[in-house]
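Recap quiz, item 2
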Amino acid sequence: MKLLLSIFCGLCWIACSNPVPKPLTPAFYCWETVFKPDSAAISLLDSTSCNILYIKILDIGKNASSGAIEPYSRLELRDSALWQSRQIIPCVFITNEVFDGISPEKKEWLAGKIAAAAKDFAPFKEFQVDCDWTAGTRQAYFLFLNHLRKQLPQSTTLSATIRLHQYKFPQNTGVPPVDRGMLMFYNTGDVDEESERNSIFHPAEAQKYLNGAPKKYAIPLDLALPLFSWAQVFREGELWKIIPGPLPLAEMRSGGKYLEHTTLEPFPAQLWEVQDGTFLGGHYLRPGDRLRVSAIPETLLLESARLARQLDLADDARLAFFHLGIAPKEYYSAQKLDQVCKTVRN
Amino acid sequence: MQNRKKLGNFSSTLLKQPMSGLSKVAWTFLAGAWLFELFTPAPHTPPCVPHSKPFHGYTFFDADFVDASAAYAPYFLRFGDYYDRNFNPEVLQQKENCEEWTERFCSKARWEDVAEVIYESDAYDLAQLHEAASDPTRKTPLPYRLENNDFAYVVAYNGCSEVTRYLTFAKRCEEHVVAKGDGWSAAPRHVQDMLELIREGKERFYDTKSAFVRLRYAYQIVRLAHYAGAYQMTVDLYDELMPKIDRKKRSVIFYWALGHLAGAMQKLGKYPEAAFRYSIIFRHCASKRIQAFRSFKIRDDKDWQNTLKLCNSNEERSTLYIMRAGGSHTWAVPDMEAIYEMDAANPQLELLLVSDVQELEKVLLRTSVTDHKNGRALAKIKRDAVAKHLLDLQKFVRRVIRDAKTPNPKTWRAVDGYLELLANDRYAAAKTWDRLEDELDNSKQDKNIYQQLEIWRCLLDIMNLDTTASDTVDRLSYKVRSLEAFDQNPYFEPFLQEWLSAGYAQNNHPGKAMIAAYPPHTIRYNPRLDVLEDLLRLSNNFDPVLLERTMMIDTNPERIKAYFLETKGVYFLSRGEPEAAAAMFRQISPVEQARMTQFVPFANRFGEKINREPPRETALNRLEIVEQLIDFEQQGRAAHALQDTNEAKIWLRLGDFWYNTSFFGYEWEVRDFHRDGANQSRLAQGPVFPLEGAPDGNRENLDLSLALQYYEKAYKAARTQEMKARTAFMAARVQQKQWFSHPDCTYRPGNPNVPLLPAEYMNYYDLLITRHSKTRYFETVVKECKWLAAYAR
């Protein structure tokens, strides 16, 4: 009897101490250089009750000829009403090359420049840095983040993006000294490789990153999932261009300029071969060019959400969809995106 | 034990975190899962070569061969940083404008003086200049800074107040249209001020008589409207003002204004209209070609058809085709044919021609050695199709020469010869160039062609080198290197090395091939037997190529031979063949043997440092070492047969040798010439690791099976507990390193945690801890070795 009572009490204790996890809060990335969401985008934001936007304000790289660190694009703000009505998290993208051989003075200077540029987009509670740092640039990047933290307003939450390889091998690449991380749960494939399956997300590839990854990540993690498609154009066997966004498939099928190949993939990546010279997405494609279209259908998005259950996400994690500008809004209903948010937690 | 330690750290970290609603059971489950993860295999990441630079292939075009004013050429051609250095669009733009002013003032001032007034003077100087020009008495002095400026003097002397009035207006516009921001912050735009200036400019436009100045007012107004973001107004202003200007004389300012009109149209969604205008600028205005090419945008086939409809002539249509083909970096013969049909004299056709030949160069001037050195960067499909494309291009070039419609037939003839060279018809190429050279005159264009032919003839000389003739090839290579053209193109030296190397390899001289393309020391990274045997054969024959290439080692042939013999001996030793190694080392002359480096590889140490201590009195060179090794082996066998008490000691020494001279030992250099510490973090990818500049990678001695074999023998033969402990500890170290080299091992150097070994790699640690922990040796070693201490806990 005592034993049964103990088991019963134990079960009660387990049940009481395991509250139902909070569903993820939806958010969107805005990665264009002009912030002017169209009506479809605003409608998607409203219907998903999405109040959080991660907006890229600067693209920073190294000038190929002068070696100077400089922004190569800066956000042009056209819709200030939308900006004011949402919680905005300004983001900067910095190429990893910037931190290769950077001097200590430059790190501080860069942090100062970014903090000053961020002031134009104030007020904000959080600021995010996106950089695919490696073991070689880790030290410089982390020092830069420390400088940036000092230069930003004191109450600002500093966050950084985390790639899957950085999540899996923190012993090699370290954990950035920030308050939160945004795990980019996509780009699992090699875009240069023509034989690559879905180059944006493939469950088998994603699972490889999860296998052997530490169960606990040192900082609270949010999650970013892909909501876009692109076409890799291979010219004579080499990747020539990437055309982002949904393609005019109906037009491509009816125009007689493409030959469509079928694939046996569970999540198909469409293959097209150009038969006759044609313009697509602002690029002139020649006969013989091959297009591999990678997209994220609902089933694959849900699959990615299911796999993401294995991740060590924060209790108050957000789910940011990448990205608003090229997301095919007509394919993703608010209900579906809500289901994705719930799937990660269930 | 290691698990416990790691769990201890893990739990203490977790306790600092809020419990976040997870129960203890859940924590236990997580901890278990985490423990499981410790045994989960690490991913097999592809090897990478650090610091490797992209290589896109060789090109032997001279940058002056095509039209030097082609500021858009970087989009078509690969001339390195030539255009960055020589064609600054901003300078070109200023020069074009100033030259128009100079012409307007009957060349009475140099363009540099014009530039000083227009681009360097401030508002005060210009106001002062305006006063001087407006003064009918001519008594008002020129501004101080422009006192010696001829252009300022001519303007003031002739009372050109319309000009000075315009210049002061242009200076006021400047602050609104010149980018002020550094990219980090947005440059403020004062739209109201800009609109006010547009209004004022229009008034001035209508008040001005000179068509020359009127055009410039129109340009300033249209530009202001565009920069103010008033795109429809830009179009309207252009349509209003430009028809009111007498445009009998062509002016670059017209194209500059057209650029702003095109920009505004694109913003308004009129892509075909914008693209058509950009193509006009591209064809006629050198200073704006780059911007026009960059801004040219056709979204889809409909845009393209609509843009073609706007063209009034085949010349205009052909420019659209040029822009469409530009920068695609692929075969462009069909495009060239289409353009040629429409506009045989199109000045930009030659750019496409050179671009296409460069694509052929990328493939055809690439040897197997180039691939070996730089990786097979080229697409297979392109390589497979190269012969067809070469024939197609030759056919097209010959047609152009035959038709005689091109304004630059000599350029096409020169390329015809080059295509023959690329087709490996060297005799025909030389003949074609001979005939052409006879017709070249002293014109600038012909001089450029001559310069190009010199470069190609140098390439022809390299390709004609006979690699089977050892006695002459070196002399002829020297002759080629002394050519002026050779110095001018940085690609010649690597190409020559690779060409010779490929030739030697084809003639069964792998060693000679190797040293022709790589510095001699690189053969030691991962020595190859066929290479070493060839090099030893050549060194016996005093081969001149070998002597020339090995000069950086030494000029003494005996020393070079010793270098290769020692390398070959190390090759055998690294593979566990001391007898073969001894045979090599014994061939080294006594003088050279005395120069050999000395080592102390038989010491028993338990530290993990890999730095070698200075040779002591007991230090031995490699020959002495292998002789000692062979001797120990015999002694060990004898001791075993006789059940000698020294048996374990002898096997231990041999075990120590193979451990100490491995990648993990302090005397690694006995069996290797190059050790890369970075490989510690990717041991499973070995034993050959990528290394920049290493033709066959860098081989590390990771195999510890011989060391373990001898330690196991020593353990079995040991008669005392002390000896058992010593040999067990060494065997345990070997097993640990073997686990580190296993693909499933996730431990990496620098990890503060003690590495966790699977059971099959823990045999000797377990043995040491359970059976020999009461020995003095154990007590000593456990103090020094933290890992053992952790395992013991």
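Residues 229-295 of chain A form one domain.
Chain A touches chain B at residues 13-14, 17-19, 21, 58, 65, 70-72, 74, 76, 113-114, 116-117, 120, 136, 168, 171-172, 208, 211-216, 235-238, 240, 255, 257, 278-282, 284, 286, 315 (CB under 8 Å).
End of item.
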